[in-house]
Amino acid sequence: MDFNVKRLAADAGTFLSRAVQFTEEKLGQAEKTELDAHLENLLVRAETTKQWTERIMKQTEILLQPNPNLRLEEFVYEKLEKKAPTRVNNHELLGQSMIESGNEFGPGTAYGNALTKCGETEKQLGGAERELIHSAAINFLTPFRNFLEGDFKTILKERKLLQVKRLDLDAAKTRVKKARMSDARAVAEQELRMTQSEFDRQAEITRLLLEGVSSTHAHQLRCLNDFVEAQTTYYAQCYQYMVDLQKQLGSFPSSFSNNNQLSGGASISVPTIAVSSASLPSVSGGHGSSAVSGGFNELRSSNGSRKARVLYDYDAASSSELSLLADEVITVSSVPGMDSDWLMGERGSQKGKVPITYLELLN
Predict the structure, then answer these.
(1) Who has greater pLDDT, 242 or 260?
(2) Which residue has the higher pLDDT, 327 or 239?
(3) What φ, ψ does residue 46 adopt, rounded to 5°?
(4) Burial 229-267 (b: 16+ CB within 10 A, else e)
(5) What was the pLDDT predicted at 331?
(6) Is 105:119 a contact under the CB 8 Å cutoff?
(7) What is the SS3 assignment for 305?
(8) Average of per-residue pLDDT across 228-240
(9) In 3D, which of 250, 234, 268, 266 has the Cα closest to residue 357?
(10) Stated pTM of the model
(11) What secondary structure does DSSP assign to 122-189, as a single string?
């Protein structure tokens, strides 16, 4: 018990000397041992790395999940070490709404069919977004978080211990200066040598940990490359999905017939996005527009007839037109004076005008 009392008294004395030394330094009444320039630079670099790691993580999380309430919910699940529930993202919600509305209007109609195809593509975009978030969480955010919660906390702990050893060293230096008797001075000098040794050892430990930040930078660089690769894959998938969708919607007429016009006479149109072949990857699986146009031009100039496959259902807007069913094969021919967007179609004894955007010429 006497030993414990002495130990507590010694600890209290050490704490008091550190407090006195710290206070006198702040008041400018005591000298302070400065760390060498290299160690100071390493400390600054570590602190800068920590600050920017936190900021990059925060902005990445905002990018991947813009909803702050959902981010907070995911944080709580993470702290509770529970798996967050799988949620339907905005692309998938939009896709589901489009598909349901397409079914309501009827997949056999041009508008219903287009809504369904757009909805399927939106769900594909949602799936690609989910893959990006999963990849970024594992290969980018997790390593950054591991640095903050692991390596940097260790650095912080050792840096605080270095500060304690530095206060002990300077307190010992002060006692040596104040010692008047030779015996007291000898004891103070021995204590100074001991505290100097402990300080030097702690400074070396701290230095080695701080120099490890270079390895952290190298690792975070690899993680950054992984994040860029995940984004590249994501945007390439999204681009390909949208190009495929555009090719499908491109077969619809640019404007619908008078019976499908909006009130006031304004027609509904499906815009086409210009895609530069010089800057974007090529898309396989379809006929080029020039080849298609060339086939119809050849048909008009020959005054002959060709077989054509119907791409989509078409409801005749008047008695002069022919209703069509997707995937059926009809005979088409050109009639002098007819609009260039139309051909004469024949199915058995039935005959009428058909829009060329609903057709694919057969060999």
Answers:
(1) 242
(2) 239
(3) -65, -45
(4) ebeeebeebbeebebbbbebbebbbeebeeeeeeeeeee
(5) 93
(6) no
(7) strand
(8) 95
(9) 250
(10) 0.60
(11) HHHHHHHHHHHHHHHIIIIIHHHHHIIIIIHHHHHHHHHHHHHHHHHHHHHHHHHHH--SHHHHHHHH
